[in-house]
Amino acid sequence: MTEVQVQNNGVKPLTKQKRSRVLPSLSLTSNASEMSDATYTCKVDNSPSSWDALPINATFSLSADGSYPKLKIHKSKACDLRTGESIGVGGGRCYRVFF
Predict the structure, then answer these.
(1) FRET label pair with 67: which of 31, 44, 84, 93, CA 20 to 30 Å apart?
(2) Other beta carbons within 10 Å of 80
């Protein structure tokens, strides 16, 4: 017998089982006629900041007027708020957007 077999004695160690959570689902709208229009105002920094200086979950724009806002979701990824798609980012300058 090897040393490992003697220590384990053929019995697997017990592992904790995860508790399953029951979460409510999101309510869905059936079509666009049930949706309402929303207008948001925001503040945009006058000077650009570096991508690395942005904290995670910060909103930003690539243009000084704040159009097409995006959300930093990782140190190398952003999410386009219009489409919800993630975009790979290597660095650069951007303008902070505050809602």
Answers:
(1) 31
(2) 13
